[in-house]
Amino acid sequence: MSAAENNGYVQRHQPHPIRVGVIGVGNMGQHHTRVLSSMKDVELVGVADINIERGLETASKYKTKFFEDYCELLPHVEAVCIAVPTRLHYAVGINCLLAGVHVLIEKPIAANISEAESLVNAAAESGCILQVGHIERFKPAFGELTKILKTDELLALEAHRMSPYSNRANDVSVVLDLMIHDIDLLLELAAAPVVKLSASGTRTPNSTYLDYVTATLGFANGIVATLTASKITHRKIRRIVAHCKNSFTEADFLKNEIWIHRYPNNSITDNKQPYRQDGLIEKVYTSNVEPLGAELEHFINCVRGGNQPSVGGEQALKALRLASLIEQMAVSDKVWNPLDSQSEPRIQSFSSTI
């Protein structure tokens, strides 16, 4: 094969760039735009935002087009990343899916369960990919934690997700803003239905929504879990602890570190000087891959290959249903048990005030 023929063969068999747009270029949308603009085999067609000044500035920075109306962007793209406020997820997402555009939508999937179900159904009917931005799944520390827990018998889990107060995501409670990340992770790690739940919460005097919530879950396989999420803690914490039969594992998602504490296999003693090893600590090394980059690469690969994403609409809907129960239990301070019909609360909209 000549050089010219070989060059033509390579060009014909190179994948075409996936044409992508970003809808909503606030805090998270800015990051989506930044990562997509540098990805191989991706053409960032444009960004859309109702804030014209912000949209134009973002488009100029990343050398792409600005659309004031996101609907005008849709005919030009194969896929979009939606990073608008939660209350708009359904309206924007459904229009994109009905237009035959693949969608990555930020978490939570929607403001309430009925809207989430409609998005899942629309994706199935259109044949489009629907991925939800549960970005913690793509953190290297979580990937390693999943591998570690396959080697031991898991007994209990603890999750702490704490942040100082911020003006971002103030249209939802801390359950929908922060805790839902750990809800998704713990459902994945426990791999069993939740059969019991209790929760409590509080809010600051000027807040409409819960700012601090703690929940206790019981799973059908006997695993128990506690989750704590806060918007009023002065230090940022992102941590999951796993209590296993033969080990105790700490995963710090901020530092991207994992520590495994194990019981020693034996002790060294003699008649004069006893020596005892109280425990063995192992540090697990993880990669420095940017989680958002990994998430977007996964999305693009799903769009290109037609595969279902690791966190699709169904998984996000399951997390949203559990988040709804936790939020309601935190307000009512009751215990939910599916075997007790009197204790099961009515599912309500997340957008309702507390």
Textual characterization of the structure:
- The chain contains nine helices and 15 strands.
- The chain has 354 residues and is an alpha/beta fold.
- Strand 12 (247-252) and strand 13 form a beta hairpin.
- The longest helix is centred in the last third of the chain and has 20 residues, at 313-332.
- The model is unreliable at 343-354 (pLDDT under 50).
Oligomer: single chain
User: Regions with pLDDT < 50 over 5+ consecutive residues?
Assistant: 343-354
Shape: globular
**H and E string:** HEHEHEEHEHEHEHEEEEEEEHHE
Q: What fraction strand?
A: 25-35%
Number of H- or I-type helical stretches: 9
Output the radius of gyration.
Answer: 23 Å
- Structural class by secondary-structure content: alpha/beta
Mean model confidence by pLDDT: 88
Strand segment tally:
15
Physical arrangement of strands within the biggest beta sheet: 14-13-12-11-7-10-9-8-15
Helix content: 25-40%
How far the N terminus sits from the C terminus, by CA atoms, comes to 71 Å
Largest sheet: 9 strands, mixed
Q: Could you give a short description of this structure?
A:
The chain is an alpha/beta fold. 33% of the residues lie in helices and 25% in strands.
